[in-house]
TrEMBL record:
Any single Pfam family the record assigns to this protein: DUF92
The protein's name: DUF92 domain-containing protein
Keywords: Membrane, Transmembrane, Transmembrane helix
Residues annotated as transmembrane: 30-53, 65-83, 89-109, 121-144, 150-171, 178-195, 229-255, 285-302, 356-379, 386-407, 419-438
Annotated GO CC locations: membrane
PANTHER family with a match to the protein in the record: TRANSMEMBRANE PROTEIN 19
Its membrane topology: Multi-pass membrane protein
Top-level taxon in the UniProt lineage: Archaea
InterPro entries listed in its UniProt record: DUF92_TMEM19
Subcellular location: Membrane
Amino acid sequence: MTSTLRRAGGFAAVGTLALAAPELGRAAAAPFAIVAFLAAFVVDEGPVFDLFARPQDRRDGRLNGLAGFALAATGLALLSTVPRRSMPIDLFVAAVLVVAYGTVGARVVERVDTATNPGRTTAGFALVAFLAALAGQLAVGWTLGTLPALPAAVFLAAAGALVAALLRSILYERDDPLVMLSVGLLLWLFDAIGVDAALTEVGAALVGTVALGYLSYRTGTASVPGMVTGVLLALLTLVFGGVGWFAILIAFFGIGGLSAKYRYDEKRSRGVAEDNEGARGSGNVLGNAAVALVAVIGFAASGSMPMEGELFRFAFTGSLAAAMSDTLSSEIGVLFDNPRLITTLRRVDPGTDGGITWQGYIIGIVGAAVVSGVAVGVFAFGSPRLAAIAVVGGGVTGMTVDSVLGATLEGGRVGNQTVNFLGTLAGAVASAALAALLL
């Protein structure tokens, strides 16, 4: 049986074919298309098959994993050569190398760390993927005679590595084609928005967010996928928004994470504690912050959109105010007795979806006020008081919508993360609408 490290090295060698793209031009997809054909229809035994075959490939007698990997690279290569507004070649190369070499990094860590710590494995994947993506962009630029701007190259390499590490932490290795395509398309989007920050700012953002992510993982407030998700969100917020946007995001994650740990043993004894010792996973993080991420990206792209950038600022703060309100009202409100269902006001057991206490509701309003206070402090609003009202209004609206949806829809096919997303979306819309009316 081939070792996983040797197999990863074989995939990395195939991925390295992407570096020939500048020379091949419109034929950049050809090497990967040939590899996909050979893997799917020709190679079914021998040393090459043994090198690339995963356990499922051996059962099927076909190199499905290699074929899928090569087909994904073929698709990205076509996107970088065929359309009139094509993906930049350096981003195609970066997306392929992120997946190909990131896996090598993970396998090296697994070989050295016999305890197989998932945090270290993910860190190994992300670090090697980042270095490979950065080197790939620089190599393409050198070949074409137009080196990319270093701040943008560093940011895109880091973003690609984090996206791939996140997807790989929640998917399987056989899903590499999906990971590669997702990384390529997102890098294309980020590149189209543009990176205006200087290299020192991008570097500081990367170091700071990674340090905070590691701290959240070590303190148990985030799982490995939750840590990677938080780092990615924080990096995008810093680069596309700025320090003020980042301060609001960190206020939510910091206070929200601590509230999950607050009197955790008592919550567990009451049967209302979060799973995994209160550590937040990727679904929880995205459910609470996905709307905020879309808002900050929308703000960065607002120069080429028929929408006022200020509304994205209120959508961002309103969504996080709603997330903060819901988190605090849930995590602290469950410690009080006699909750009532928000839709009927009948008494329910603690922890029931849609159940609220008046103490929890008050604490939720305070949470929205905290986000509002940070927002007013970091943003130069023309009318701070009215802006604060808009943010608090969005937060309370989102918290209320979350509770109503919890009482009426949550359970079965509609999970907590979906309800959180819809609640934060309601907070964003309400805050932006109030800002448009009041300001």
